[in-house]
Amino acid sequence: MRLILLGPPGVGKGTQAGFIIERYGIPQISTGDMLRTAVSQGNALGLQAKSHMDRGGLVPDDLIIDLVRDRIRQPDCSAGFQLDGFPRTIPQAEAMTAAGINIDIVVEFRLDDEELLERSGGRLVHPPSGRTYHALFNPPRAAGKDDVTGEGLVQRKDDQADTAKKRLEVYKRHAGALVDYYSQCAARGQSHVPRYIRISAAGSLQEVRGQLFAALDEYSTTPMN
Fold it and tell me: Is 211 a residue whose pLDDT tops 80?
């Protein structure tokens, strides 16, 4: 399965992506991670990306598309992949299609604003790995410590109240349009359009995971576009 996970900051995409990795064996692909890897390796794409980053500019969409295309050719993506952080806009989604990067399923996680902000306020991160926890909804086994390494967890500035509100506003302004784009494409029944799943993130982690697995299991047993 080739997936895109959509949803505002704090909705729990990262946690659910981890569940998908465990059950279906398909990697989570972060464009941020891809950029850092390409730059550290010093390959042609990495050098191009670095030149834009060193100038303080955004890496162009066509370069990101090339990075994605190279990444999904790797053996661990043979059964599929999950895209994290891309596409963010309708032009990026259209560019992916033009580049022949077809997606099977778009999953949108939804939650009301008040609960989103409450969740953001309690989120804790293990910076080296990116593993996320929540003080109430998904606490680490030892308070303030990563379950795997025992190292300390931090609250990112992005998850503080004022910043979290601004991130939610940005999501609604940009990614919200992407949600509409994919849902409308699916409703029109166009060829090579990903199937669209909407999941309520209002329940417990286990309840949300159950909804997600039920939906993905259903689609994985039927032909994809």
Answer: yes
Query: What strands, in cross-sheet order, belong to the sheet with 2-6?
Result: 28-30, 81-84, 2-6, 105-110, 195-200
Neighbours of 143 (CB within 10 A): 9
Q: Are 82 and 62 in contact (CB under 8 A)?
A: no
C-beta of residue 109 within 8 angstroms of C-beta of residue 12: yes
Euclidean distance between CA atoms 198 and 91, whole angstroms: 22
Quick one: which H or E segment has residue 37? helix 31-41
Give the model confidence (pLDDT) of 104-135 as tens digits: 999 989 888 888 777 766 778 888 887 888 87
Residue 217 and residue 157: Cα distance in Å, rounded?
A: 37
Please report which helix (H) or strand (E) contains residue 26, including its range.
none
Could you give the residue numbers annotated as active site?
13, 88, 123, 156, 167
State the CB neighbour count (10 A cutoff) for residue 45.
19
Q: Of the ranges 66-75, 92-101, 145-154, 215-224, which one carries the lowest mean pLDDT score?
A: 215-224
The span from the CA of 111 to the CA of 171, in Å, is 13
Question: What is the rounded distance in angstroms from the CA atom of residue 156 to the CA atom of residue 78?
Answer: 34
Q: What is the pTM of this model?
A: 0.73
Using an 8 Å Cβ cutoff, are 3 and 96 in contact?
A: no
Q: Please state the φ and ψ torsions of residue 86, each to the nearest 5 degrees.
A: -160, 135
- What gap in Å lies between CA 27 and CA 20, rounded to an integer? 8
3-state helix, strand, coil in the chain (%, to 5): 50, 15, 35
